[in-house]
């Protein structure tokens, strides 16, 4: 089976999202599937320091690096203007910068990855016809990539929510629920990382195939843990 796997955060990054994507793609490859991973390619300070060393993921999957459009100016200026309007009235804006930016643009600040990735995926599909599309979220704007490709290529879509989207306890956003509902209508299955998320989404979408796959231990940061004396043993 050919699998197109989209994960904004992927190795050589070392965060939780990258580790989950690495394990998923390696498991699928070990199971005999042909996995093509699309990842965001801009440099990042939390990347694996030994770039010359190949990981298992590098040898098992076909990794395609896609650089996002530079969209920082698109959300920084609306945010600055929005906050200045409050200051002119001697008020303090009650919203966080990211929330202000989402008012004027899409669901998050990473949407600059969508169009370049769609182009790269369609180009790759000329030589490798995907049988299924998997998208790791957040950023939740990545789910749009999966939704459009699923429609265009007529293949199933599986979403992996590392965090709850509309059901996140730290914000309430009706727009998030509407976007989520629209995309989940296209999705054939949803994977979540907690039993609470599984129950919440099962109540919202009782006819949807929903599975609970928790996170495991993170990749060991050998260059951090083995080369300093921050911890004393008694």
Walk me through what this model shows:
There is one protein chain. This protein is α/β, with parallel strands linked by helices. It contains 9 helices and 7 strands, in the order βαβαβαααβαβαβαβα. It has helices at 16-30, 56-60, 72-88, 97-104, 114-124, 142-153, 174-186, 195-204, 222-225, and strands at 2-7, 34-40, 62-66, 132-137, 157-161, 189-192, 209-212. A 7-stranded parallel β-sheet has the order 3-2-1-4-5-6-7, sandwiched between helices. β5 (157-161), α7 (174-186) and β6 form a beta-alpha-beta unit. α3 crosses α4 and α5 runs parallel beside α6. The longest helix is centred in the middle third of the chain and has 17 residues, at 72-88. It is globular, with a radius of gyration of 19 Å.
């Amino acid at each position: 089976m050919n699998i197109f796997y989209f994960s904004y955060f992927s190795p050589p990054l070392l965060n939780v999202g990258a580790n989950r994507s690495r394990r998923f793609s390696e498991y699928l490859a070990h199971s005999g599937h042909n996995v093509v991973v699309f990842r965001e390619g801009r440099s990042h300070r939390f990347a694996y320091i030994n770039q010359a060393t190949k990981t298992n993921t590098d040898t098992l999957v076909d990794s395609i690096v896609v650089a996002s459009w530079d969209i920082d100016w698109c959300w920084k200026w609306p945010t600055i203007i929005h906050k200045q309007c409050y200051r002119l009235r001697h008020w303090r804006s009650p919203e966080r910068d990211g929330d202000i930016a989402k008012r004027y643009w899409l669901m998050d600040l990473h949407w600059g990855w969508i169009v370049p990735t769609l182009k790269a995926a369609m180009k790759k599909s000329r030589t490798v016809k995907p049988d299924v599309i998997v998208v790791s979220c957040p950023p939740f704007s990545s789910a749009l990539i999966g939704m459009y490709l699923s429609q265009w290529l007529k293949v199933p879509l599986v979403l992996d929510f590392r965090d709850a989207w509309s059901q996140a306890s730290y914000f309430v956003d009706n727009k998030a629920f509407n976007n989520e509902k629209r995309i989940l209508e296209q999705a054939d299955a949803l994977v979540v990382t907690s039993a609470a998320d599984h129950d919440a989404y099962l109540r919202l979408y009782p006819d949807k195939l929903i599975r609970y796959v928790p996170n495991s231990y993170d990749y060991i940061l050998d260059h951090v843990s083995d080369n300093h004396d921050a911890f004393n043993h008694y």
